[in-house]
Amino acid sequence: MKNPFIINGIVPDEYFCDRIRETNKLIKCIGNQTNVLLTSPRRMGKTQLIRHVYNQNEISENYHTFYVDIYSTTSLHEFILLLSKEIYTQLVPKGRQALDVFISVLKSLTGSFGYDPMTGLPVFDVRLGDIRSPELTLSEIFSYLENTDKPCVCTIDEFQQIGKYPEDNTEALLRTYIQRMSNCVFIFAGSDRHTLENMFNSPAKPFYNSVEQMFLDKIDREVYVDFIDDMFARNGRIISRNAAGYVYDLFEGHTYYVHQTLHNAFAYNEPDVEISEELMDDTVSDILQDKENSFLTQLSLLNYVQKETLIAIAKDVKASEVTSVSFVKRHSLQSPSSVQNAIRHLLRLQMITYHIEGRTKVYSVSDRFLQMWIARKY
Ligand SMILES: Nc1ncnc2c1ncn2[C@@H]1O[C@H](COP(=O)(O)OP(=O)(O)O)[C@@H](O)[C@H]1O
Ligand SMILES: [Mg+2]
Q1: What is the pLDDT of residue 111?
Q2: pLDDT tens string 14-27
Q3: Which pairing describes strands 114-115 and 319-320: parallel, antiparallel, or unpaired?
Q4: According to the model, what pLDDT value does residue 328 have?
Q5: Contact in structure between 363 and 313 (CB atoms under 8 Å)
Q6: Ligand with an atom nearest the CA of residue 3
Q7: Ligand 1 pocket: which of 3, 10, 42, 48 to mutate (most atoms <8 Å of CB)?
Q8: What is the CATH number that goes with domain 221-297?
Q9: Is the CB of 11 within 6 Å of ligand 1?
Q10: Closest by Cα among 2, 4, 10 to 244
Q11: CATH number of 302-377
Q12: CB of 259 closer than 6 A to ligand 1?
C-alpha cells in the first residue's frame, strides 16, 4: 500500500495538503507578469508549493516552467551551468529541433555540446571550465527565455545564495536582465528571510521593490488535521483526531516534521491499529533514535562553547536575550561575548535560526528533531 505522506521527491496532487490560497495567488502573479519573492522557514513547503503550481493545468499548458535550486552553488559559473542544464533537461522531451534552437542561441558555449551517436540528440556535457565569459552566456540564456514560443516561469530557489558568490556584481547583473524581460516571470524563493528581505527591501540594493512578497506560513490546524484523517481513512486506516492534532502541535504545524512523523506512523504500525497519541510519541522516539548518529556527528564538529550554546537554545526551545547575563548564568555558559561568537557560527552553519519578536531576536534550533533530541539527551 502506498504511504500517503510523501517525504521524498515531488508530492503528487492527490497527496498534497491545502495551500489553495497560496496556489491561486502564485497563478495570479504569473498571469499578471509579476515576479514573486516566496519566503518561509526551511521545510515549510516552498518547493512543494512551486512544484504544485507548475503542475496545475493553467500553468503546465500555457507556460514553459523551469526550476533551479541554487543552494549548493558557490559561483556565477555554477549558477549558469545549473540554469542551462535545467533548460536543456526540460527541452529533451520536445525533441531535436527544440534542443537545436537552444544550442544555437548559446553561442558562447558552441563546441561544448556533444552529440549522442545513437539518437543524434545533442548531449549536455558542458563543464564549469567551458563557461569562459559568464556574462555573455547569461545574456544568451536570458535571450533564449525571452524568445520562446510560450511565456516562461523560472524559479530560482534558495536565491539568497547569490549573495555569497565571489563575483560581487551578480545581483546587479541578474537584475539588469530580469528587469528587461517581458516573456518570463521569476519566482525567487528561499529560507533565509533576513538576507532575502534585505536584498529586496533596501533601497540601495538592485532588486529593491521589484517583486510581490509572499510569506508561506504553516498550514491551518483544522485543515491539516482533516487532511491527516482523510489520508488514513482513504487507505482503510484509522488515526484518532487527538493524535493528529497532537503531532501538529508537537511540531507547531511545521510541515516536514509533521509529515515525516505521520509517514513513519503509517509505515510502522499494523494496519488494524488505531494510531493514538502514545503511538505518536513512540514514533517520534524511534525517529530520534534513527537520527542519533547523524546528530552526534553534527555536534562533534562544534567546539565546546558552540555546543553548550546550541544545547542552551534547544532547552529553551525559543531562546531570547541570549547574550544577557541571566541567559548565560542560567545555562552555565562562559560569557556573553563567547555566546555571541558561538551564535554567529551556528547561524552560519544554519543550525539555528532566529525571528524577530517586537525588538528582540528569538533563536531556535533549525532542525526540530535535533532540538528534541538535544532537549531529551542533555
Ligand atoms: N502542501 C504539502 N502537502 C504535503 N506535503 C507537504 C506539503 N508541503 C510540504 N510538504 C512536506 O514537507 C516537506 C518539505 O517541503 P519543502 O517544499 O521541501 O520545504 P521548503 O522548500 O520550504 O524547505 C516535503 O518534502 C513534504 O514531505
Ligand atoms: Mg526548498
Answers
A1: 78
A2: 999 999 999 999 99
A3: unpaired
A4: 95
A5: yes
A6: 1
A7: 48
A8: 1.10.8
A9: yes
A10: 4
A11: 1.10.10.10
A12: yes
Does the C-beta of 47 come closer than 6 Å to ligand 1? yes
Q: Is this model's pTM higher than 0.90 or not?
A: yes
**Amino acid (1-letter code) at residue 48:** Q
Q: How many angstroms separate the CA atoms of 369 and 167, rounded?
A: 36
Topology alike, domains 19-215 and 221-297 = no
pLDDT of residue 194: 87
* Residue whose CB lies within 8 A of the most ligand 1 atoms, among 43, 46, 157, for a mutation test: 43
CATH code, residues 19-215 = 3.40.50.300
290: CA distance to ligand 2 center in Å? Answer: 23
The residues of the chain scoring below 50 in pLDDT are none
Find the 191 Cα to ligand 2 centroid distance in Å: 8
Domain boundaries, the chain: 19-215, 221-297, 302-377
Query: Which residues keep their CB under 5 angstroms from ion ligand 2?
Result: 47
